[in-house]
Amino acid sequence: MTIYLNGHYMPIEDAKISVLDRGFIFGDGVYEVIPVYSRKAFRLPEHLKRLQHSLDGIKLANPHSDAEWTGLIGELIARNAAEDQYLYLHITRGVAKRDHAFPNPPVTPTVFMMSSPLLTPPAELLHSGIACVTAPDNRWLRCDIKAIALLPNVLLRQMAVDAGCAETILIRDNSFMTEGAASNIFVVKNGKLLAPPKDNLMLPGITYDVVLELAAANGIPHEVRRIAVAEVFDADELLLTSSTKEVLAITRLDGKPVGAGKPGALFARLHALYQDFKRDVMRAA
Ligand code: PDD
């Protein structure tokens, strides 16, 4: 596995950073996850825009122009074997004496990228759907920043694992649903797809955008608005999206069946549309 660290490509075993890196000490950095299909980075401009939004959110200057990122990412893809990859980009505020305040003058940010083979969900999971739990969303108020400080998300995801489930659906203020610990969540009721709004309380998913675009282009009724917790428990279907999971049906929630307890009609439709889109658009030259 060839990775990129601060201007150099190298085997992952050779990659070293300082223990004083602010990413290590404070979780002071941001990241991106970009799927690559047939060696083409999917929606790279959109991912780089979200990266810029995250960097602006933590007041860190972007170390590269979009043209530079595109070149570096292309080289990383070329140096790794898989046709379908997922790229992890990670930028921290750099190495400095431990002090909460930003280093002044600023230091050089640490830039790390790695590629892993992209493994999409196996057929069994598409047929069975996944089980989820709910939990209070106890994260901060800037969930739109893709911050590397993921301890709340880690603890929330582990709650699902401890319950033998795949993901935790987050409920803000005992009132409305935001997203999953590492995914976006959609509700289906009476044939309509409901999505929470892209605000400061959720990560604006690139897959979320694709699903809403596919719904719009194919005449599937949809609405973007706050989703009350009662609507989550009363849903006909629940769907989960992310770059690595694509679209999955959630068929059990807190130990009870969702709707009919098996993947529903809108899941089947959107999953098929997503696969067509992948073949015709994402993989296309
Ligand atoms: N996570 N919400 C959260 C909190 C996420 O961490 C993610 C993705 C998403 C979905 O975004 P996208 O569709 O752009 O992948 C929503 C990535 C996959 C991760 O942290 O590994």
What's the CATH topology name of the largest domain? D-amino Acid Aminotransferase, Chain A, domain 2
Largest sheet: 10 strands, mixed
Number of domains: 2
Can you tell me the CATH class of the largest domain? Alpha Beta
Structural class: alpha+beta
- β-strand percent reads 25-35%
How many DSSP helices? 8
Overall mean pLDDT stands at 98
What compounds are bound to the protein? N-(5'-phosphopyridoxyl)-D-alanine
Task: Please mark out the parts with pLDDT under 50 across 5 or more consecutive residues, or reply none.
Answer: none
Our measurement of the CA-to-CA distance between the termini, rounded to an integer number of angstroms, reads 25 Å
Overall form: globular
Give a verbal description of the structure.
This protein has 285 residues and is α+β, with helices and mostly antiparallel strands. The protein folds into two domains: 2-117, 2-Layer Sandwich (D-amino Acid Aminotransferase, Chain A, domain 1); 123-282, D-amino Acid Aminotransferase, subunit A, domain 2 (D-amino Acid Aminotransferase, Chain A, domain 2). 30% of the residues lie in helices and 29% in strands. The protein is globular, with a radius of gyration of 19 Å. The mean pLDDT is 98. N-(5'-phosphopyridoxyl)-D-alanine (PDD) binds next to helix 6 and strand 14.
Defining traits:
alpha+beta, 285 residues, six-stranded antiparallel beta sheet, D-amino Acid Aminotransferase, Chain A, domain 1, globular, single chain, D-amino Acid Aminotransferase, Chain A, domain 2, 29% strand, binds N-(5'-phosphopyridoxyl)-D-alanine, ten-stranded mixed beta sheet, 2 domains
